[in-house]
Write the structure tokens for this entry.
Amino acid sequence: MAADVVVTPVSSNTVLELSGAAPKVVRTRIGSPYVIRAMMDAADADASARVCGYEANGGLLLGSAVDDLAPLPTRDALLPIIAVVMNARERPLAEVVAELPPRFTFSDRVADFPQENSAALIAFLSHGEEDEQLARIARLFGEIAGFPTGIDTTDGYRMSFADGAIIHFRPSGNAPELRCYSEAEAEEKAHDLNARALQLALSLPVLDKGQH
């Protein structure tokens, strides 16, 4: 599609940036309204830019005209399939996928998790200056994820590590549950990282164990 700007929530994996697929990547909170708003802003800022977006759970949103395609800011299941087939041309699709950086994601949740506990967890992790937060992350999650390199609080609390691993805690906005997204270079590692991160989070003394 030769997109100039790609918009996607923070929960989508980082193969987008690592592959260099687009000159500009905009990360938003989770949810179609946030993606659509950011696409509209990008299109308003540059009328000639090709703008699209997507969410981790499927669908592509077209925020500007692309050749003969009119803007379609709603989830389109067909265009991604056509784009992949066109990109493959004479090659097997498996070869196209194999050229992408190896990134795997996994997500899980803790149900019946009081919103007060979610707020306490995020407040505990985000307390202090960035250096203080990174030191805390290293102490708590360093054994399972390595050296922390970055923090993103766009939607919840997302931690990046030197080897590319990601742990992202996010309280649900409409249910009493805590969600955890993880990312790694291997599928098994992403799964294991998620389980161990949730286990560590639930053991923190800042949580009211009587409520969970």
